[in-house]
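As a warm-up, study this chain.
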Amino acid sequence: MGDAGVGSMLLADTATSVQRFVSVFVGVYVLLIFAYIIASWVPAGSSPTLERVRQFLYDVCEPYLRIFRRVIPPLGPLDLSPIIGVIALYVLERLVNTLIGRIL
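Now compare it with the structure written out below.
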């Protein structure tokens, strides 16, 4: 029973660590999406540093948001893809964490 208990504890600890990683990853990516949105409101060319940050955020966020832009057309000047993208991330996080929790 001792070896089985240690194995079970190790599996539970690993599952918890993976769940935390997924949660932190989603949280950081959502913050990057929000920063991308805010950076898009600042006029281009205002600062070379801001342009580097804006390019980084574009490179990180745009491929993911493009998936939703293909499905959901913009409503005039309003782009709903970041909202749908954030909701999808949270739903995916819950799904992955639930599946990992069921491993136990």
